[in-house]
Amino acid sequence: MGRFTGFLLASDYDGTLADSRGEIPPFVREKLRYFCAQGGLFTVCTGRSRQGFHAFDASLMNAPALVANGMMAYDYAAGRTFFADAADRAGCAVLREAAVRFPSVGFELYTPEGQTYVFRPDGRSRRHLDNQQIAYTEVASLDEAPFPVVKLMLSCGRETGAQLQRFFDHADMGCLKYIPTGGEMVELLRADSGKGAGLLKLADMLGIARNRVFAVGDGDNDLEMLAAAAAAFVPENGCEEAKALAAKIVPSNDDGAVGHVVDLLEKTEAEPGPGIEI
Fold it and tell me: CATH classification of 90-190, choosing from 3.30.365.10, 3.40.50.10490, 3.90.1150.10, 3.30.1240.10?
């Protein structure tokens, strides 16, 4: 029995676990190896897809990775899917209407099996896929893309993205919801899924008590995960909405945010729970 036996710690990747160069700092690596050696389970909970997350490191991450904003838990070491909360074609009818109303929007569709299909890819979409080293197949219509899917990305630009989100606010979304953003791409996922739901589902599957589930994240898509955790940690570079949910603000991702979280967890009571002092 180690100090962290029965603990599950989940971290966002970009802007949290990784520094501004996209690397995991040595200090963080050292602390995570200690956390795992002392019985803790560590996972990454990222918006990236299974096929777009290439930073898995079995020496640091000893629990299945939560990808596609928690819609899927995938064990890279074993090549095994723990769960995939995929959206079927019938629940995605709103996509067809969006494609007609917004003819400039491109669609990226990611399957649980690891395939990616793209309808009307534009420069943004191609750069996004190339940057994440994702192989993809272009389709002539949404009907040609296989379902179910665990991740949907709509490439639209900022102005069209704002219009698209207003459209979704009043549309019949079926089984889908979108993640609000001011960026150039809008992400859709299954309405009953997300980083928070995915984290708790993984904890239950691993037999981790919910009062021993902890999370660290910096962005809008981390809010559900931070709210679901027994205690949440947010780096100094995090958004204000995330900081409002934090039990503790930790140094920035460039200053080893997740490593400092491990230090704080070591000081907690033996039976941490909601409302604990960190």
Answer: 3.30.1240.10
